């Protein structure tokens, strides 16, 4: 929606999400329990500039679902 409103040449978006239970110390939180870790791979297609791609990643991080998961989980994002 954001890219469309800005008139950016985004032609397709795909997101792959994986979920794991990871020891908190491996996730960098320092605690001993396991925590939920979500791995998100976002693929943006279209003739976008680097700045546009980074801005779309910022917008994705403001998604209500992302923000809810981030409260109690670790989220790792890769922009493809």
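-> sequence recovered:
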């Amino acid at each position: 929606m954001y890219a469309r409103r800005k008139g950016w040449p985004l032609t397709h978006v795909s997101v792959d999400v994986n979920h794991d239970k990871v020891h908190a110390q491996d996730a960098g939180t320092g605690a001993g329990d396991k925590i939920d870790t979500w791995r998100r791979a976002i693929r943006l297609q279209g003739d976008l500039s680097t700045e546009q791609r980074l801005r779309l990643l910022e917008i994705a991080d403001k998604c209500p679902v992302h923000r809810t998961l981030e409260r109690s989980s670790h989220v790792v994002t890769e922009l493809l």
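The first strand starts at residue 10 and ends at 23.
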